[in-house]
Specification:
The complex is a heterodimer of chains A (155) and B (307).
Chain A (H helix, E strand, L loop, with lengths): L13 E6 L8 H7 L8 E5 L8 H12 L4 E6 L4 H13 L2 E6 L12 H8 L8 E5 L5 H5 L6 E3 L1
Parallel strand pairs in A: 1-3, 1-4, 2-3, 4-5, 5-6
Chain B lengths: L26 E4 L20 E5 L2 E6 L16 H18 L5 H11 L6 H4 L3 E3 H12 L20 E5 L75 H7 L20 E5 L23 E4 L2 E4 L1
Antiparallel strand pairs in B: 1-2, 1-4, 2-3, 5-6, 7-8
Helix pairs in contact in B: 1-2, 1-4, 2-4
The chains are: A alpha/beta (155), B alpha+beta (307).
Chain lengths: 155, 307
């Protein structure tokens, strides 16, 4: 129990992050060394942008680690394509992420039905019922209305 | 939980925003969808809304997608990626407290425990609060010990009949150190009343702890039955919300949970009356007269949670 009285630190929960890149700038090892990120064994990078990313996905993971230091983290780049973003949702879910965090957007996504949701939902495998999908797109009508099927819950 | 938290300023991987050093308690962040206007990853500095991170009610950090190196209290521009990441961390904490929560429950816990902001149209549920959220999840986790069954002489009870349950056998007569829960599960459309001259079995330990009414296990008690709306803690006898009643109809057996500690000193009896299925409305009564320190009672989708 910490000083705030909480008994938990996120242990046992894996959080997936979808954003542009994780380590294109090459600071991940430093982050892990200075405590900004958990050790590499607790970070699973499923797919990273090959180059040109700003590593904001790693920044998101730092925030998550600050709040839930016991949680495992996973990353999948969202910047390759809309289809790959949808694949990333499924991949993170398959990797055991119970919480998936996504703040990436594409200009040409339909307003009412972002491609990521449509493609992830229409995927044969789908996302398990026990995953929490946090989409940061404030104009994502799909998220606000909770219009996805029951397998994906949106905040 | 303090391990692994950087307590010194550091440079984030992305040079787009900079959080201040934080301790892992009493975080509050803005819901990610509470913002308007352009946001990440487009880099448009058109919004004039900052994402504030609170600790114990005080702003300790702000995020921006521009103005790298801005110090505390400078006006910054929102990045929804910080908000969604913060929410993800809180969600992980909630799920760590109770891994069996479904996503909708996690969502609602965060919403119900959030601090409302002045304009919900743009701020949504408000500022998510990790401490109350985790506390709520932990409260929901405190289910009755289903391994404790009370033997009842009657395997079946005729409509309108009754069955006596020895409150002492239910271990209700022993005070416990903290709040506890007891539950009775009945089959179709039951009516439950409990009787005890001293109402002792209805008391919570210490006679002052707030009630916790769980989604599947309902405290019982109350000699009389009165209609109840939402404020369980403020009514002496309350009737469960109808939706909660419906959840009970398929519970096939009568049992109880663990200690309902009361400070009672002698065995007492609780009478369970079973109504006519399909005709009698289930009627779960509560007695909260001894709860003198109600704190927060939230009505969640699956029932009330009081913490």
């Amino acid at each position: 129990m910490d000083e705030s009285g909480l008994n938990v630190d996120g242990a046992g929960i894996k959080v997936g992050v979808l954003y542009n890149s994780f380590n294109d700038l090459g600071g991940a090892a430093t982050d892990e060394a200075d405590g900004a990120l958990p050790s590499a064994s607790n970070i699973q990078v499923l797919s990273d942008l090959s180059s040109g990313g700003t590593d904001e996905g790693r920044a998101m993971m730092q925030i998550i680690y600050d709040i839930a230091p016991g949680a495992n983290l996973a990353f999948y780049t969202a910047a390759n394509s809309e289809q790959d973003l949808a694949n990333g949702i499924l991949a993170l879910a398959a990797a055991g992420c119970k919480v998936i965090c996504d703040d990436f957007g594409y200009y040409d996504e339909p307003f009412f039905l972002p491609e990521r949701h449509r493609r992830a939902n229409h995927s044969k495998s789908g996302i398990g019922r026990r995953h929490l999908y946090l989409c940061g797109r404030q104009r994502c009508e799909q998220c606000l209305s909770g219009g996805l099927d029951a397998d994906v819950r949106i905040l | 939980m303090t391990d692994g938290i950087s307590r010194t300023p550091r440079t984030l991987a992305a040079a787009s925003f900079r959080p201040l050093p934080l301790t892992p308690k009493a975080w509050s962040v803005v819901f990610p969808w509470c913002f308007s206007g352009a946001s990440q990853p487009y880099g448009a500095a058109t919004t004039n809304i900052a994402l504030d991170v609170f600790q114990n009610g005080r702003i300790v950090g702000q995020f921006t997608n521009q103005n790298v190196g801005q110090e505390l209290n400078n006006p910054l521009v929102v990045v929804t990626l910080a908000a969604s990441a913060s929410l993800a961390g809180v969600a992980a904490m909630i799920l760590a407290a109770d891994p069996n929560l479904i996503p909708a429950q996690v969502e609602q816990i965060m919403q119900e425990t959030a601090l409302p902001m002045h304009n919900s149209a743009v701020s949504g549920a408000g500022l998510v609060q990790v401490d109350p959220a985790v506390a709520t999840a932990e409260a929901l986790l405190a289910q009755p010990d289903m391994s404790e069954y009370v033997s009842v002489a009657n395997a079946t009870v005729a409509a309108g009949g009754s069955v006596a349950v020895d409150a002492y056998a239910m271990n209700l007569g022993n005070g416990v150190a903290g709040a506890s829960n007891a539950g009775i599960y009945l089959s179709n459309s039951p009516t439950i009343t409990t009787s005890d001259a001293g109402d002792r079995e209805l008391r919570h330990a210490g006679d002052h702890l707030p009630a916790r009414i769980l989604r599947r296990a309902h405290n019982f008690g109350g000699v009389t039955r009165q209609p109840c709306a939402r404020h369980l803690l403020y009514r002496r006898d309350c009737r469960l919300h109808r939706s909660a009643q419906r959840e009970q109809r398929n519970q096939p057996h009568l049992q109880r949970g663990k200690d309902h500690g009361d400070g009672g000193r002698s065995p007492t009896n609780s009478v369970v009356n079973l109504g006519i299925p399909g005709r009698d409305e289930p009627d779960f009564s509560y007695d909260h007269k001894l709860i003198t320190r109600p704190t927060v009672c939230k009505f969640l989708r699956w029932g009330f949670v009081c913490i």
